[in-house]
Amino acid sequence: MARLHLVTDDLALAQQLATPLTQAGYQLTQSTTLHEPFRADLVVYGPSHFGEQDYREYRQHPLAHQADWLLVSDGTPNPWLDKLMRRGVAYHFRKPLDLDHLQQVLAEFRDELAEQSSSCAQAPLRSNLDQYGLLLGSSEVMRRLYRLIRRVSRTDANVLLVGESGSGKELAARTIHQQSQRAAEPFVAVNCAALSAELVESELFGHVKGAFTGALKDHSGFFERGAAGTLFLDEITEMPLELQSKLLRVLETGEFRRVGSDKVQYTKVRIIAATNRSPDEAIDGGFLREDLYFRLAHFPIQLPPLRQRDDDIVELARHFLAYRNVETGTDKAFTQGAIDAIAQYSWPGNVRQLKHCIERAHILAVNEIGLGELPDLTEKPLATEDIAPGTTLRDAERSLILATLEACQQNKTQAAQQLGVSVKTLYNKLEKYREGEEEWQ
Ligand SMILES: Nc1ncnc2c1ncn2[C@@H]1O[C@H](COP(=O)(O)OP(=O)(O)OP(=O)(O)O)[C@@H](O)[C@H]1O
Predict the structure, then answer these.
(1) Lower CB count within 10 Å: N or C terminus of the chain?
(2) CATH of the domain at 416
(3) Does residue 167 have its Cβ closer than 6 Å to ligand 1?
(4) Which ligand 1 atom minimizes the distance to the CA of 174?
């Protein structure tokens, strides 16, 4: 049964609506403010006075984009109510209320909701999502991102991508490359946190035989081999500052030298850098040179975290399931409970986490994907019961690492600090877990 929630501090309105709402065929709940938590498919919202604070509370409400909202007001012109309507609220009923019309609208919503929940039990075999390059998503923030990427792809400007882990920075970088005039040239991704400083330097600049122990022969770096291509420097803030200044010189003059050589060479490589730290904090904390930041940030692009992408969450879940269904010839479907849990979770690991979660659930499910096939999606701190006696040391370590990452919103530098290991060690461990998962699938 569809759920309807009435929010009003106006006693007279609550009384007036009591009969039409109870007769409308919904499971009905009520509160006087938006502060009290509730779950609903349809919200009738009738505050006696509506101001800026109420507008902000609505915008931050977890159901702002997940339920339909009907507004009731006394009809006094009010800019905050107008703003609310522009934010996607469907109906604005002004007093005196036409109760017959209200009842008709409630019945229409109820029928639509019933149709949606029956179609939600159908196995998704198609995707509704827009795709731009390698990026999926139909939400307004993603469409804005596509416009920005389209513009930057036509230029040769360096780009800085800022966003949480798993929000699609590397996909955005690959999309920019694919849409640029460099598309036929190499795209190389270097993770500055996963490699040692020496290796990053030698990968970028190359080296000559004997430049350091183990340099057994000459080696050309990416600036030489990929001069006409795109270099993606992931986790740029983990690059040692000394190397950052060498990189700055390349960006300013195009000049570089192989490690151990005096010969100056030139490159025209395009740099796309990425970070999951805030650039301001990284500069203040001494992780990012300010002059390098200004060189890179001709085009700073922010990747939105999944929790700010409205309906994309559920549609991405359906998309990933549809792909698995078609690939494996199955027709597994989500239950309504699973859809609700997916929609309400904050997804700190963003699209990567959602994708893994759906792919696992698809493996575990016989027919339906319900809460039993999903990991626990209630928000809670580290679950130490995962590390009860009897757990192997390997599993305990894995649980602790994943829980710390989750607590740090997937920020690997912060998680590594808390765990007392280097970022490189953390990467190596995560890589091992990922390989393990692939074997298991
Ligand atoms: N917009 C998106 N559309 C489709 N898939 C996405 C999107 N964003 C992320 N993903 C999925 O998440 C995975 C991780 O994305 P990506 O490597 O681009 O994230 P990232 O921000 O670079 O993460 P990290 O900071 O951890 O390196 C991708 O392989 C893809 O499966």
Answers:
(1) C
(2) 1.10.10.60
(3) yes
(4) 18
Q: Are 109 and 146 within one domain?
A: no
Question: What atom in ligand 1 is closest to the CA of residue 191?
Answer: 27
Please report which residue ranges of 306-422 form alpha helices under DSSP H.
312-328, 336-344, 350-364, 393-407, 412-419
Ligand 1 center–CA 39 separation, angstroms: 30
Query: How does DSSP assign 19-80, residue by residue?
Result: HHHHTTSSEEEEESSSSS----SEEEE--SS--HHHHHHHHH-TTTTTSEEEEEE-----HH
Domain match, 185 and 284 both: yes
Which residue's CA is the closest to the ligand 1 atom numbered 16?
168
**ipTM of model:** 0.98
| Inside any domain, residue 368 | no
Is the C-beta atom of 276 inside 6 A of ligand 1? Answer: yes
In a shared domain, residues 221 and 81: no
- Mean pLDDT within 273-285: 88
**Sign of the alpha-carbon torsion through 69, 70, 74, 79:** positive
- Domain hosting 265: range is 140-302
pLDDT tens-digit map of 84-95 = 887 767 788 999
Compute the distance from residue 239 Cα to the ligand 1 centre, in Å. 21
Q: Which of 351, 402, 438 to probe ligand 1 with, by most ligand atoms within 8 A of CB?
A: 351
What's residue 227's pLDDT?
86
Can you read off the two tokens belonging to residue 320? 């990933």
Dihedral sign from CA coordinates of 416, 420, 424, 425: negative
Q: Is ligand 1 within 6 A of the CB of residue 163? A: yes
How many angstroms separate the Cα of 142 from the Cα of each of 147, 149, 350, 360? 9, 10, 14, 26
What number is the average pLDDT over the span 181-199? Answer: 88
What's the token pair of residue 22? 């109870």
Distance from residue 354's CA to the centre of ligand 1 (Å): 10
Task: Tell me the per-residue pLDDT of 402-413, one tens digit each, with 9 for 90 and over.
Answer: 888 888 777 888
- Structural domain total, the chain: 3
Residue 82 shares a structural domain with residue 155:
no
* Structural domain includes residue 318: no
Q: Are residues 194 and 270 in the same domain?
A: yes
pLDDT for the residue 403: 85
